[in-house]
Write a structure and sequence with these properties.
The chain has 481 residues and is mainly alpha-helical. It is 44% helix and 5% strand. The chain contains 18 helices and six strands. The strands form three sheets. The protein has a two-stranded antiparallel sheet with strand order 1-3. Helix 11 packs antiparallel against helix 14 and helix 15 packs parallel to helix 16. Pfam families: SusD-like_3, SusD_RagB. It is found in: Cell outer membrane. Belongs to the SusD family. This is RagB/SusD family nutrient uptake outer membrane protein.
């Protein structure tokens, strides 16, 4: 029997301790309710156990306990979003909080002992090790479920490596060898600390190749949405269209800034994958932009979202996006008035950027601790297809003008009668604001962050100090030597 993500949300954290680095220190019988008990010793030797481990990887993407910057603080429901937005901000956001870890990122003055950065690295490789275990043990999964389990594992690994290489490595340069250092590729389960601490960094080219391989496998192995059982929580899982959507994002990143000689091959693939999602995925934009956020269930435009509940959410760790963005919580990130003024009069998207009682703007996309966190929305696919078609001079699926007007119509602003690349990029900035894409867009478009060029060492995260101390084969990024 397949267990849903919701069914196992409270069970998996204990099992994960046995899977992160396999050891005899984990008790065979977990201290959980009898109906949800899992024998850790059999976790990877039965079909149910492997599928439970896979669910554990999903849970680990969200999980957070203790305090911000702790190795257990939330990954995809907090730190990755905040790091991208704060690192790329030149005035869109203002950090006013007390945590020095985030302040360093905002000021582009990060030290290698920053525990926020250490947590991102550690938690990412924990997730990777879990899915490596799943991939390694997939043959014990029931045959009719094997492709889906394998596809989901490849999806998660590809997603995590994509974020790691963009944060810890210099930008991908289309048409170049990309021999600059990325992150270590660990593709087999590590059962001993010594194994994990003896891997060098792979090149950016090698990591991107692995990301594409993982996501392509996921796309080809996974079923579509119709094959999932919504009542069991399977909508929380990656499907073939989620893999295509993430591939579209990867190819757009590889395309780099407009005008380079290698952009066409990547833009073509980005347009094709985005078009596949738009035309075949069965997704629809929600009618009201504000309803795309702060939901306890996936919306019609959520292609992939991290699931949270009242009982299990990032806010339990004094972390998570609502903690920092919402006025009703810590309210440590302010939205600059100058950014709000970029929206046209009547643009409904500005309604999520509200004035608090102190007359400061706040980001209302993340107001509720227990709400799901959308990672990939259908709106992004329209924007990717529009940008790729505009730069290529093509109309795969639709014209760029048609795609941008779909976005503008939902925002309740007048349609454009003609379009330029600047128009497309502007809509992207306004639509996807504060959703964790800022620094990545800045780097691919070769824009500056203040006085720092897109490829400045200060815009790349340091390899965490404790990783450098533990692994003699790691090389530190130049800005931190």
């Amino acid at each position: 029997m397949r267990r849903s993500i919701f069914y196992l949300t409270k069970v998996l954290p204990a099992l994960l301790l046995c899977l992160l680095f396999t050891s005899s220190s984990c008790d065979d019988e977990l201290d959980v309710e009898p109906q949800t008990a899992i024998n850790a010793g059999e976790a990877l030797t039965t079909s149910q156990g492997v599928q439970s481990a896979l669910v554990g990887a999903y849970v680990r993407l969200m999980s957070g306990t203790l305090y911000v910057g702790d190795p257990d603080a939330p990954l995809y429901t907090g730190d990755l979003n905040l790091t991208s937005e704060l690192l790329g901000s030149t005035g869109n956001l203002i950090w006013g909080g007390t945590f020095s870890t985030f302040r360093q990122v905002f000021q582009k003055d990060i030290t290698p002992d920053n525990i926020l950065i250490a947590g991102i690295w550690l938690r990412s490789y924990e997730v990777i090790n879990i899915v490596n275990n799943v991939i390694n043990a997939v043959n014990v999964v029931e045959e009719d479920q094997r492709d889906q389990v394998l596809g989901e594992a490849h999806f998660i690994r590809g997603m995590v490596y994509f974020d790691l290489v963009r944060l810890f490595g210099l930008p991908y340069e289309p048409g170049q060898q990309n021999s600059q250092l990325g992150v270590p590729l660990v593709l087999q389960p590590t059962s001993l600390i010594s194994e994990a601490n003896n891997v060098p960094r792979n090149t950016v080219e090698e990591v991107y190749a692995q990301v594409i391989d993982d996501l392509t496998r996921a796309r080809d192995l996974l079923p579509d949405r119709a094959s999932f059982n919504e009542s069991s929580g399977d909508e929380a899982r990656a499907n073939t269209y989620a893999a295509s959507a993430l591939l579209a994002r990867v190819y757009l990143q590889q395309a780099g800034a407009p005008g380079n000689s290698a952009e066409a091959q990547y833009l073509t693939k980005a347009a094709e994958e985005a078009n596949r999602v738009i035309q075949g995925g069965g997704y629809d934009l929600v009618e009201d932009f504000t309803n795309a956020f702060n939901n306890n269930e996936n919306t019609s435009e959520d292609i992939f979202a991290i699931q949270q509940t009242v009982q299990s959410n990032a806010g339990q760790s004094n972390a998570g996006l609502a903690t920092f963005y919402s006025y009703n919580q810590r309210a440590e990130i302010e939205v600059a008035a100058g950014f709000v003024e970029q929206y046209e009069e009547g643009d409904e998207r500005v309604e999520v950027l509200y004035l608090d009682p102190d007359d400061l703007y706040r980001n209302g996309k993340y107001e509720i601790y227990s709400a799901n966190v959308p990672l990939i929305r259908l709106a992004e696919m329209y924007l990717i297809r529009a940008e790729a078609n505009q730069r290529l001079g093509t109309s795969v699926g639709a014209t760029p003008l048609e795609d941008i007007n779909v976005i503008r119509e939902r925002a309740d602003i007048p349609p454009l009668t003609s379009i330029s690349l600047d128009d497309v990029l502007r809509e992207r900035s306004l639509e996807l604001a504060f959703e964790g894409q800022l620094i990545h867009d800045i780097k691919r478009l070769r824009q500056n962050v203040g006085d720092l060029p897109y490829n400045a060492g200060e815009l790349v995260l340091p390899i965490p100090l404790r990783e450098m101390n533990a692994n003699p084969r790691l090389q530190q990024n130049d800005a931190y030597i």
